[in-house]
């Protein structure tokens, strides 16, 4: 467990969010500390993505606190929200690369859009550094349709890293990948943490991903975090709801 005298980078307290009659988050609380990978595990439809969207200001909670880097996200102006989002790398489920652009152009895009007055040389250097970090320098002139699913995932992560975010949010990083590619992506998540000193939330229902990448696991069930701790601590329980999640996911 983490020391509690540290300020959390992400502080979620008693968060509630409903859509009409559907109560999705019901008192969710979670702290994420600098430099750790926290895995949020939970069934489909349990509110994992809603939680992430609240953290980046795409949705607003009904009640409760969601603070990122010391700022209450729901109270930020558009400009403040933009500044905050620059510090957060959001790796979407389906990488969302531009098919008509080469890998180089895909990676240049966020740089040029967000940082003024970069020289051609600086742009090239940043693109090459980040591609090298994800082990795909050789794909620089290819287009996404020429790459495998795992490679596209890596490029998606590289595109997020290029702005040097303090926080990485991974939404289902291993979804749709074969087991070997899953392991490679898990390793990459850990390498990113070491090389870029990021603090991460990883949303998944892949238990191997959780075990390999999570310094801490937080189990979201019925709208709140029912257990937090190491992988073993979370699953060493007689609580039926957690055991059934574990059993069900292991036989996938
Ligand atoms: N903008 C929205 N309007 C209405 N309902 C929504 C909205 N966003 C999410 N929901 C609902 O909230 C619930 C939780 O959705 P969410 O996407 O957070 O699930 P999840 O835990 O990420 O699931 P999965 O693992 O399948 O991605 C779902 O029932 C979903 O339909």
From TrEMBL:
Protein's UniProt keywords contain ATP-binding: yes
Provide any one GO MF term from the record.
ATP hydrolysis activity
Q: Does the keyword Nucleotide-binding apply?
A: yes
Q: What is the lineage of its organism?
A: Bacteria, Pseudomonadati, Bacteroidota, Cytophagia, Cytophagales
Entry protein name: Phospholipid/cholesterol/gamma-HCH transport system ATP-binding protein
Q: Which SUPFAM superfamilies does the entry mention?
A: P-loop containing nucleoside triphosphate hydrolases
Alphabetized Gene3D superfamilies for the sequence: P-loop containing nucleotide triphosphate hydrolases (3.40.50.300)
- Signal peptide positions are none
């Amino acid at each position: 467990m983490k020391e509690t005298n540290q300020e959390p980078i992400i502080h979620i307290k008693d968060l509630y969010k409903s859509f009409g009659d559907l109560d999705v988050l019901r008192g969710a609380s979670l702290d994420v500390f600098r430099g750790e990978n926290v895995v949020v595990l939970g069934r489909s439809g349990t509110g994992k993505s809603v939680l992430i969207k609240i953290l980046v200001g795409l949705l607003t909670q009904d009640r409760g606190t969601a603070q990122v880097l010391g700022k209450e996200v729901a109270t930020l102006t558009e400009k403040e929200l933009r500044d905050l989002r620059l510090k957060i790398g959001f790796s979407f489920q389906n990488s969302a690369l531009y098919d008509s652009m080469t890998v180089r152009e895909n990676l240049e895009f966020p740089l040029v859009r967000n940082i003024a007055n970069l020289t051609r040389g600086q742009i090239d250097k940043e693109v090459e550094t980040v591609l090298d970090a994800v082990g795909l320098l050789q794909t620089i002139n290819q287009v996404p349709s020429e790459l495998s699913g795992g490679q596209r995932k890596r490029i998606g992560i590289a595109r997020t890293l290029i702005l040097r975010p303090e926080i990485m949010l991974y939404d289902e990083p291993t979804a749709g990948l074969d087991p070997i590619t899953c392991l490679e992506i898990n390793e990459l998540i850990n390498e990113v943490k070491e090389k870029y000193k990021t603090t991460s939330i990883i949303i998944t229902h892949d238990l191997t991903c959780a075990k390999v990448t999570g310094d801490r696991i937080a189990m979201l069930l019925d709208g709140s975090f029912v257990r937090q701790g190491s992988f073993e601590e979370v699953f060493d329980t007689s609580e039926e709801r957690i055991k059934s999640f574990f059993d069900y996911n292991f036989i996938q």
